[in-house]
Amino acid sequence: MSDTVTIETKAFAKLVLHAAKYPHCAVNGVLIADASKIKDGNRNLDLEVVDAIPLFHHSHYVTPMAEVALTQIDNMVQAENQVVVGYYAACENFNDNSIEDCPGQKIAEKIAEMFPGAIFIVIDNKKLVQQLDSAPVKLHKWNDGKWKPKPANSIDFQTPYALETVSHLLQRGVQKDLVDFDNYLDDLTMDWTNLGIEKLVASLNASNSVDFMDKNF
């Protein structure tokens, strides 16, 4: 049975930009999938992550803040026929890249309670550079009450130029424009869905698609 996780570029961009904006902090967020693409309710097959919602860079352990964030996110995804299927995090210490050191474990486990077969993506700080040669992420999946590591080839990307697109965003300093839920709680006018970044990713995807076609045909 195949067990691959595909990540749309905008989701990949948001989680990488979140970690890049706060290299001195632990960060976390949730991963979203299209409910209609979860085959027959079987949550152990291939999964497509269509979006990522950045949560915190300093409120990881403040339960009321997490409850507010998850309630708003749940309302949003239900309206879009989507579902929260996973969690991502980066550790505060540059050298800590293990799942045990990641913040917000209770949030991740709550997601796993609601979605058996949930995934946990750990951002590898050592690979987080402006020019990405490989995906700076490690995939884990909830199984038998534990987060179990998956091989690197278990992650696929929606487009063949996802690394190029996100590298371009990093080089342009787009991470400074990313809004997480901590930012939103400080200023309720800020857009925690990051639609501006989504539009930029879509524009780069279109441009890269043309370049890719020109190179290969």
Spatial ordering of strands, largest sheet: 7-6-5-4-2-3-1-8
Look up the CATH topology: Cytidine Deaminase, domain 2
| Number of contiguous helices | 6
How many domains?
1
How does CATH name the architecture? 3-Layer(aba) Sandwich
Largest sheet: 8 strands, mixed
Q: Supply Rg.
A: 16 Å
Counting helices, strands and paired strands, the structural category is: alpha/beta
What shape does the CA trace take?
Answer: globular
Q: State the order of secondary-structure elements, H for helix, E for strand.
A: EHEEHEHEEEEHHH
Beta strands, count:
8
The CATH class designation is Alpha Beta
Average residue-wise pLDDT: 90
Regions with little confidence, pLDDT below 50 for 5+ residues: 212-217
- Helicity range of the residues? 25-40%
CATH homologous superfamily designation = Cytidine Deaminase, domain 2
Distance between the termini: 33 Å
- How large a portion of the residues is in β-strands, by DSSP E? 15-25%
